[in-house]
Specification:
Elements lengths: L6 E5 L6 H14 L4 E5 L5 H10 L14 H25 L3 E5 L2 H7 L6 H7 L8 E6 L2 H11 L9 H17 L5 E5 L4 H19 L5
Parallel strand pairs: 1-3, 1-4, 2-3, 4-5
Length: 215
């Protein structure tokens, strides 16, 4: 899309720090006078809420027949994404805001693509608008597990260590498959301040190249 507003996505496995970095990045950009929408997926819309229930085991098949299938989850994520675009992301971009999104299509390719054909996941997300910049926070499975244990909260479906290692490899496969997208890889194992500095620098470069005005 020809626009000066920018759509930035942060990606990584659970515990990579995407949520923290999205918040730090948004705060830094606001201090610089930019209008920012900070959002994430699953969204806070109706389908996003269903996904959260499914991920924490509160929603499953009728008659207690088990968890939702991997295919169903992939479809739910794709549907939530389209609602998220229409309700929040595209209107914010039309207003000239910088959109910072915690997870997007690459997450579906990594998480659902690890258990169902990635080509199919690509197809059901074919109408999702491409980000201007995706920043992938590379964190090893052990570091991510330590961070998740510190933050606490309900365990989610994809947080098994072995599955996380598989998702890391799937992320790398997905990144290679999307050669037309601008995807930057940042070492997320380092101290928080070092990671946030790199993330902010990448986004500043993107905004400067686009000529995105400050508010």
């Amino acid at each position: 899309m020809a626009r000066k507003a920018r759509f930035i996505v942060l990606e990584g496995i659970d515990g990579a720090g995407t949520t923290t970095q999205a918040e730090l990045l948004s705060a830094a950009l606001r201090r610089e006078g930019r209008e920012v929408l900070t959002t994430g997926e699953p969204s806070d819309g109706p389908i996003g809420n269903l996904i959260r229930q499914a991920l924490t085991g509160r929603l499953g098949l009728p008659a207690r027949a088990g968890a939702l299938s991997d295919e169903t989850l992939a479809l739910l994520f794709a549907a939530d994404r389209m609602d998220h675009l229409r309700a929040q992301i595209l209107p914010a971009l039309d207003r000239g805001q910088v959109v910072i999104c915690d997870r997007y299509v690459l997450s579906s390719l990594a998480y659902q693509g690890a258990v169902v054909p990635m080509d199919w996941v690509e197809q059901i997300n074919a109408h999702a608008v491409s980000p201007d910049l995706t920043i992938f926070l590379e964190v090893d499975a052990e570091t991510a597990a330590e961070r998740r244990s510190i933050r606490g909260g309900d365990a989610e479906l994809f947080e098994d260590p072995e599955r996380q290692r598989k998702v890391i490899q799937q992320y790398l496969t997905a990144i290679r498959s999307r050669s037309k997208d601008r995807i930057a890889r940042v070492d997320g194992n380092r101290p928080l301040s070092d990671v946030s500095a790199d993330v902010l620098n990448l986004v500043r470069q993107e905004l400067k190249a686009a000529g995105a005005p400050r508010g």
